[in-house]
Structure to design on (257 residues):
């Protein structure tokens, strides 16, 4: 069975603007023979530019596997993944590493900040490694939107969990990536810090035109997205546009029944 995405929210045809990321008939199998686990089963999905999409589903549904395949962090067993105009399926390691560095941003649950660097150096490190000079006006805008101006000289150990995750968000967006992948970005945060981070992610889409694909198990976090895509047993089975926490929770319960 092939799972597909409907048109994006907003009424514009899906073909009007090329999608940020596309999956076509993607399958992922771990192991072989009787021990084979089919994590994804022919998933076809489109993630449009300037849209905040959340991916949800019961445990073992394939949501994290799908995100890792879309981001080029894991290989696919079948099908193809296209990032913008570049097919990443079968791409060599060196070229794929450069593509992720230059065109993709990541925000993970564990923050992944270097403890010996200040917040500012952590934010700018990927660009420095790529040999790119930051746009200081853009850097200033991102830092100010995230409320990090007075924390730039602090190391991660001197920051709260919410501040560390905001540094990770700034690091992801300051390079102007085509798409940001966020894997449970509020999983280690208290509710207040989580709300701050989610608010920034949403504003980065609405005010800065960023594209975000987020995996989450939290209906409240998913309600910050423009749309929520639901997986079960490795297939896309439903989606909600302009989600509310209640609508997301009800659909999740039906999938787990």
């Amino acid at each position: 069975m092939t799972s597909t995405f409907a048109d994006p929210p907003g009424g514009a045809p899906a073909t009007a603007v090329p999608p940020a990321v596309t999956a076509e008939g993607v399958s992922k199998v771990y192991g072989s023979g009787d021990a084979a686990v089919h994590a994804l089963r022919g998933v076809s999905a489109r993630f449009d530019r300037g849209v905040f999409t959340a991916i949800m589903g019961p445990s073992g549904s394939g949501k994290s596997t799908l995100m890792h395949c879309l981001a080029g962090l894991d290989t696919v067993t079948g099908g193809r993944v296209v990032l913008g105009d570049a097919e990443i399926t079968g791409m060599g390691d060196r070229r794929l590493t450069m593509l992720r560095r230059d065109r993709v941003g990541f925000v993970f649950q564990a923050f992944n900040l270097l403890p010996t660097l200040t917040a500012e150096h952590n934010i700018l490190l990927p660009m420095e490694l790529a040999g790119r000079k930051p746009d200081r006006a853009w850097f200033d805008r991102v830092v100010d939107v995230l409320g990090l101006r007075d924390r730039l000289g602090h190391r991660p150990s001197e920051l709260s969990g919410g501040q560390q995750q905001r540094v990770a968000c700034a690091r992801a967006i300051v390079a102007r990536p085509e798409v940001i992948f966020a894997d449970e970005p509020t999983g280690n945060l208290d509710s207040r810090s989580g709300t701050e981070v989610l608010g920034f992610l949403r504003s980065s889409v609405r005010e800065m035109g960023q594209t975000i694909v987020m995996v989450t198990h939290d209906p409240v976090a998913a309600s910050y997205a423009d749309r929520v895509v639901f997986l079960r047993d490795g297939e896309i089975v439903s989606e909600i546009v302009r989600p509310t926490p209640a609508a997301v929770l009800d659909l999740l319960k039906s999938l787990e029944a």
Summary: The helical segments are 63-70, 93-103, 119-129, 136-145, 161-173, 191-208, 219-222, 245-256. The radius of gyration is 18 Å. Confidence is low (pLDDT under 50) at residues 1-15.
